[in-house]
Specification:
547 residues; alpha+beta; 5-stranded mixed β-sheet; 14 helices; 23 strands
């Protein structure tokens, strides 16, 4: 994108359905200087520049594309998280299904070609078709409805109407049509070695598994970014990364902040600022329901299992108190949170009673209960967890110990991150029985419910539990398309009630985010829910500047 010639002092004025909306912008009058060095664990490093699943699932993957590629709009500052225009200056709709986007003038790709409505049309029409992980409810258009009116006006009709709070195509990269059009039906197979975007930084150098270097794009439409260069550096462990911050090798962490123990170590350094914020991540367990012969498919077993989990002990032992118990996919501070869902208090006595009454008893005297179907095997289950997050590994190990009280045998399966994703997102492969998972719903969490949509009804890319409930799908379809906010809230309450009733997933806690950044050279870090660097917050990278 090219830099706007006229400086925007007070923000943008948007006309929506006859309503004038004032949208604040970041300050734009500082000169770029210096570099921002960001530390990552080695297994977080993207292995390819292709527009593949890493852009959705992986920590570095969800951020690097936002640095190089622009998007139509983003969430503005907390606590309101209002709509903030980026590649579009505004939009129009009368029915929340047919939309017109007005593309910002004067933008260019990093190769010098202009960004036009044609690029947005190409991306919106083909990316959700090419890879279903992008086919969210607000990103699926009716066939042949995407129309370029002129270079700066795009019209399209969604398959279904959406709620009026935000426009469609939330968190969606804009791809250059002139480079990707030959791969419109297999976008993820395009190597994308040049990584030509229109975002505030250009990719200068990349070594798979090691580092990424970005340089300021001088023709970006917004005066930001304020540094000349961003460097993503990888380290073999969290401890090595933490020491790198201490030794002034990096300025901030790439994703997820630091642990409570690291907090005590780093906050003693006057050149490091340590800040605690409300977390964005929710940690839960997923039950793999694909094999209907296993006890895991039995709701009685799942209820007994979660009654045997001591959430408070997990928070104390794993997070040293820096977490809150959580019951649903919706944060308590949000409008759609249902405080009255079924809750499963820690009660191993009740759990044992439920299992006994259902017939899950130890039939061979080895101290482990047996299944009641098939070969009546021991109730021994593979508990999948990624090695990249020590807290999740500790959580799995603690749950394993807690299950001994109900004579259920848990075998913790710790894998590298790539193997974890391949296994977790393919429940039909039966590589796991139960899994620890973490996700970040964000302030507008409608998409998180795709984890429960019928795999045969569009949920194949996200439904890690292989949960099938046609009634849930009907409510979900209504929820994502209803335009009345009160009705939408009622539907969200129902979704939460069903999840806690059927337990394909069981939410355990919401860890706080503890951020540590060097304060001796740079300023301007932007804090959102989850800290300075998250999938909803790339703005620290755009706003950080030399002191």
């Amino acid at each position: 994108m090219s830099m706007r010639k006229s400086k925007q002092l007070f923000g943008a004025i948007i006309i929506l359905l006859g309503i004038t909306v004032f949208v604040p912008q970041f300050t734009t009058d500082s000169k770029a200087a210096g570099e921002l060095r960001v530390g990552w664990n080695a297994d977080e490093m993207v292995r390819s520049l292709a527009c593949n699943d890493a852009w959705q699932y992986e920590d570095m993957g969800v951020l690097w594309w936002q640095i190089v590629y622009d998007q139509a709009w983003a969430f503005d500052n907390p606590p309101d998280y209002k709509y903030s225009p980026r590649a579009i200056t505004g939009y129009e709709t009368q029915d929340n299904q047919m939309f017109r986007f007005f593309v910002r003038e004067g933008m260019t790709w990093h190769d010098g070609k202009p960004v036009t409505a044609k690029d947005l049309a190409f991306t919106y029409e083909y990316l959700p078709v090419s890879n279903p992980i992008w086919a969210f409810y607000d990103a699926v258009t009716e066939k042949d409805s995407v129309t370029v009116i002129d270079d700066h006006t795009l019209q399209f009709k969604l398959a279904k109407p959406i709620a009026p709070k935000y426009p469609p195509f939330n968190w969606f990269p804009i791809l250059p049509e002139h480079l990707w059009r030959r791969h419109k039906f297999d976008i993820e197979k395009y190597s994308n070695k040049a990584a030509i975007g229109s975002g505030p930084f250009k990719l200068k150098e990349y070594q798979s598994g090691q580092y990424m270097i970005f340089e300021r794009f001088e023709d970006y439409w917004e005066k930001n970014p304020r540094v000349d260069k961003i460097v993503f550096k990888t380290y073999g462990s969290s401890d090595a990364r933490n020491m790198a911050l201490k030794k002034d090798e990096i300025d901030m962490m790439g994703y997820g902040g630091i642990s409570p123990l690291t907090k005590k170590f780093l906050e003693k350094d006057s050149n490091i600022s340590v800040v605690k914020t409300d977390g964005i991540a929710l940690n839960w367990i997923t039950f793999n329901l694909y094999d209907q012969e296993k006890a895991i498919s039995d709701l009685v077993f799942r209820k007994a299992f979660v009654h045997a989990i001591d959430k408070e002990r997990i928070i104390k032992m794993v997070y040293h108190g820096f977490a809150k118990t959580q019951d649903t996919f919706i944060y308590p501070e949000l409008y759609e949170y249902n405080p009255n869902v079924a809750k499963y208090d820690y009660n191993p006595e009740l759990a044992n009673k439920m299992l006994d009454e259902k017939g899950y008893v130890d039939t061979d005297g080895d101290g482990i209960r047996n299944e009641i179907t098939g070969k009546k095997n021991n109730m021994t289950y593979k508990f999948l967890v990624p090695s990249s997050t020590a807290e999740l590994v500790k959580m799995a190990q603690l749950i394993r110990e807690q299950m001994k009280a109900v004579n259920v045998d848990i075998r913790v399966l710790v894998t590298d991150l790539d193997t974890y994703y391949d296994t977790y997102y393919y429940p039909a492969g039966m590589g796991f029985d139960i899994a620890v998972s973490t996700e970040e719903p964000g302030p507008y969490a409608s998409w998180i419910w795709e984890f429960m949509r019928n795999p045969e009804a569009g949920g194949v890319a996200w439904n890690t539990a292989y949960y099938i409930n046609p009634d849930f799908d009907v409510i979900l379809d209504k929820y994502v398309s209803v335009t009345d906010l009160e009705e939408r809230k009622k539907l969200c309450f129902q979704l939460q009630e069903i999840m806690n009733r059927d337990l394909p997933h069981y939410v355990i806690c919401r860890p706080d985010t503890i951020e540590a950044v060097r304060n001796d050279k740079l300023d301007g870090f932007v804090s959102y829910m989850g800290g300075y660097s998250t999938w909803i917050n790339p703005f620290s990278y755009f706003n950080v500047h030399a002191k």
